[in-house]
Amino acid sequence: MDYETPLFFRVMEYADAADRDVVDMVSGNPDWEPPEALRDGLREYADLEPDRFQYPPSEGLLELREEIAARRGVDAEQVIVTNGAGEANYLAMARALERDSGNEILLTDPVYPYYPGKTTMLGGTQRFVATEDDGQLDPAAVRAAASEETAAIVVTTPNNPTGAVYPAETMRELVAVAEAYDAILISDEVYDHYDLSGAFASALETDSAHRIVTNAFSKSMAITGVRVGYTILPPELVDDAKSRHMLVNVATTRPGQYAVLNALRETGPDYYERNRERLRERVTTFTDALEAAGAEYTRPDGSFYVMARFDGYPGTLANVERLIDEGGVAGMPGEAFGDSRTAWLRFALVTPRVEEAAERLATYFD
């Protein structure tokens, strides 16, 4: 079986090898500080007894699972702590396909490229549903695409790459589609703390045995390298997911879980609001420059990505490399996210050099 390396790595390698200074707007690595309590937790951990440096419970530290469960309104037994949202999505998609209720995964277009990759890796087949121009997903279109072969419907809200935030009605209707076809709605909510619209609704708000929610602290706490995420499954799907997690990873970082738990307990809402406000300012700065450059662009309701379209400059890998060499800005080609945004480029606003990048783009496309 052939696996295709995600274009993220190819673009980052090209930018790193460039002969000039390049503003990196490729990957979603927050450039701001993690919660102070996260750092405190890691410092504390260094002085704990030797037994704390051994295997933790495979499904995650009980106290962390209980904290997550209390915040999400579920039973702790439904929570598996994973190596980031990446593993959480892998477990969710695997469980959906293992139910012998179809072999097809419904994905949105545009799509976060790791979902199609995981589908291929797990032996499933892909089917795409185009989103609206504003990134919203019409549940009627999902229902029209669904069939008896549909094992799962995978969505992410707030969305990467469009920045769309799906309202409660959309989430309820997507769960209903999953129920109608004995499928699983997999809702990746890793950007939930970056809802800039106030419209975010979790799939957990709809009680159903046909939905799995995945998440992580990678983005919300600016700790993509710590690798602590989680998945919340219906009770009947938990045991086999725990077994797969154990066989693939054994367990997740114990110091990371300890530090995340400390941060959850000690960090107030002001930390998250400061980061949302930072993003709001960056969105304005960046889109103002795109406006000046005559570009069409998306203004995100959530997450931290902006998509832009420049006349005569489609979102190909070759054009991304050209922009790196000639403009000094690295973004992602729209073609990496599916067929519907091939004319676009995607930029991540997680760099303190957003204003500089915006000026470079405005100059380059003037």
Compile the SSE list and pairings.
Blueprint: H1 7-16, E1 23-24, H2 36-45, H3 62-72, E2 79-82, H4 84-98, E3 104-109, H5 114-121, E4 125-130, H6 139-145, E5 150-156, H7 168-180, E6 184-188, E7 211-216, E8 229-232, H8 235-249, H9 254-266, H10 269-292, E9 296-297, E10 305-309, H11 317-327, E11 329-330, E12 332-333, E13 345-348, H12 354-364
Parallel strand pairs: 1-11, 3-4, 3-5, 5-6, 6-7
Antiparallel strand pairs: 2-8, 7-8, 9-10, 10-13, 12-13
Helix pairs in contact: 1-11, 2-9, 4-5, 4-8, 10-12
- Tally of individual domains: 2
Q: Give the CATH class of the largest domain.
A: Alpha Beta
Order of helices and strands: HEHHEHEHEHEHEEEHHHEEHEEEH
Instruction: List unreliable stretches of 5+ residues.
Output: none
Oligomer: single chain
Question: What global shape is seen?
Answer: globular
Count of helix runs = 12
Tell me the total number of β-strands. 13
| Main β sheet profile | 7 strands, mixed
Q: Give me the CATH fold name of the largest domain.
A: Aspartate Aminotransferase, domain 2
Give Rg in angstroms. 20 Å
